[in-house]
Amino acid sequence: MRHSLLVRLVASSVLIAVCSIVATAWLAARSTSGEIRHRQGQTLARDARVNDALLGYAASHPRWDGVEETVRGLARQSGQRVALATEGGTRIADSAGGRPPLPARASAVVDPLAVDVSLVPGAATDRIDARAVGPFRLPEAERVRLREEVDAQAACLRQVRQRATVVVGPGGRPYLRREGGPATPAPGMERPRPPGGAPSGHGPSTPRVALAGARSVAVATTLEPAPPIEPVERARQPGTAPGTPTGAPGGRPEDPPPVTPERTVPPEPPSPGSPPCSPDAPGPTTTEKRALNQLAALVRQCHGSRVDVWLDETGTPAAPASAAECLATARRTQLKPYVAPAALLYIGSPEDRAPAIDPYGIAGVTAVILVLAVGVSVLVATRLVRPVRAVTAAARRMRAGDGSARVMVRAKGEVGELGAAFNEMSEHLDRMERQRKAMVSDVSHELRTPLSNIRGWLEATQDGVAELDPALTASLVEEAMLLQHIVDDLQQLALADVGRLRLHPEPVDVADLVEQIATVHRAAAAGPVLTVEVTGRPHLDADPVRLRQAVGNLLANAVRYTPAGGRVSLRAYADGDDVLIEVADTGPGITPEHLPHVFDRFWRAEKSRSRQTGGSGLGLAIVRQLAEAHGGSAAVRSEPGQGATFVLRLPRTTETA
């Protein structure tokens, strides 16, 4: 079964189909995954921008009232639907009209007290948004006072050729940020000192101020030469997207100022006798002290012991590393009344769902493809195998002895050529078998006549009916010579068939050869006229005995079938690289249906096989074998009633002097 052509074709087709499916699925999955990663990256960046804007709003507003305009502005910028809902599912704001259903899954949770680090990679370790300052937001009066002190310090820095940038922290506290400058302080400038008891690694700051178990460290100041003075702009409040309402806590809280450069202090030549500039930033204000006291109490309640709490240079509360977790918990408790509650952020449309993989659908499609592949393969293989099976059946019939076995050739291409070749082979074998049978019959007939004559006369002599006189002896010898001639011809043909016919080639002058043959046959040709014509002096490398035998057989055959008064001509001439010897007669000719069989063994047009009308039927077969043994060929052309022309074509040799 495994050697069946049909099974092989079907198995090959199934294997090819499976490999094609796997390769296509792999390529599709690879390209799709790449496109998905690209789109996910774009979606993540878009979601991060929207989330950051809403985090800024939530950090500066205790409620979500008024966020509708901000949501619409973000939707216009991103080109997507933006919606906010409480954790219970109540819709807060939605950029889509008509209140369509929310997407199946939220894109993020907007909570300034627990930001999503996947959308805010630079978030603080406590995950509290830096824009959430709560009670640390400075009122306008304190901001103005601190700004005047920082500006005074900046004026002092101009005299020592130092450069620093004025930056406003999230709570509104201004401070100086170093931009570069001398590695050592200028003459008369004091080097900044860390506060006593400050945590290890903390930047330079002002001396601490004890506040009910907490301490406050002023903003660390870095001094550098500054570029020329630029106009001071009022910083836009951070975390407020376009269209976001601003205000103060309790109603419409005012957004905290952003942490952005606000003013650059240019260097000026130091004035003689001026006092040295102090590196200390302004100390905590009344608002900051009150907020620090509240935060210190919450930290002490969590930690169980007294913990120092201070403000860093941006106005953000800080504590020792051992109390970092309690500080984060206390800050969330303190900031909770000042920020909006956590909300679910939805970006996209109701159809934006995670793509689901349907294994049953994939398996179904794969099964359909395999069934189609198997069906087409079976159909094609069946049509391909049918003529092969027909050829096999015909070959078995031939083996059983049916020489008429043929196949019906309908297909084209290689299969059709196979059927046609088989039919040609079958016809050739059938013809050869018929010839073999006919040859056996002809041989038996040719041998039976002389053997019967010899036996009959010998028995008559033995019985005393006839006397063995010289005439009878001569007749018996003639019959024996006829038998010998038939046997010699058969042996010669057998040697030629197996390629063992020996030739002794030598240079032959064709003109002399044909003249000798014509001389011999003129004496026997009493009826027809024999003429010889040789053009030039062609030469051959041939066995003269075998060549004389071949031409003699043709002449004898022509003389036998040419009536009295007829004409037999023998011509020889060169034709390119060949020498042609033609024997033409004016006999009855040969019919077209008999021409293909003229050179067959024992073939005679006269089926009675009479000795008066022909020989044994081996002469022309021997002529063809001898011509082919010399590397040439034998052919015949004839028309009924106009005689026949036999042509020997033999390779020519160059004539030598």
Helices and strands: which structural class?
alpha+beta
User: What is the radius of gyration computed over CA atoms, rounded to a whole number of angstroms?
Assistant: 61 Å
Helix proportion: 40-55%
Q: How many DSSP E strands?
A: 18
Relative strand content: 5-15%
Distance between the termini: 74 Å
Helix-strand pattern:
HHEEEHEEEEEHEEHEHHHEHEEHEEHEE
Mean pLDDT, to the nearest integer, reads 76
Descriptors:
alpha+beta, 11 helices, 18 strands, 4-stranded antiparallel beta sheet, 657 residues, ATP-binding, rod-shaped, 5-stranded mixed beta sheet, kinase, transferase
Give a summary of the structure in a few sentences:
The protein is of the alpha+beta class and about 650 residues long.
What is the element layout, followed by pairings?
Elements: H1 5-60, H2 68-78, E1 82-86, E2 91-94, E3 108-110, H3 140-159, E4 164-168, E5 174-178, E6 209-211, E7 214-216, E8 261-264, H4 286-303, E9 310-311, E10 317-318, H5 324-335, E11 343-347, H6 359-399, H7 414-462, H8 470-497, E12 506-509, H9 510-524, E13 529-534, E14 539-542, H10 544-561, E15 567-575, E16 578-585, H11 619-629, E17 633-638, E18 644-651
Parallel strand pairs: 13-15
Antiparallel strand pairs: 1-2, 1-11, 3-11, 4-5, 4-8, 6-7, 9-10, 12-14, 15-16, 16-18, 17-18
Transmembrane segments: 6-29, 360-381
EC number: 2.7.13.3
Keywords: ATP-binding, Kinase, Membrane, Nucleotide-binding, Phosphoprotein, Transferase, Transmembrane, Transmembrane helix, Two-component regulatory system
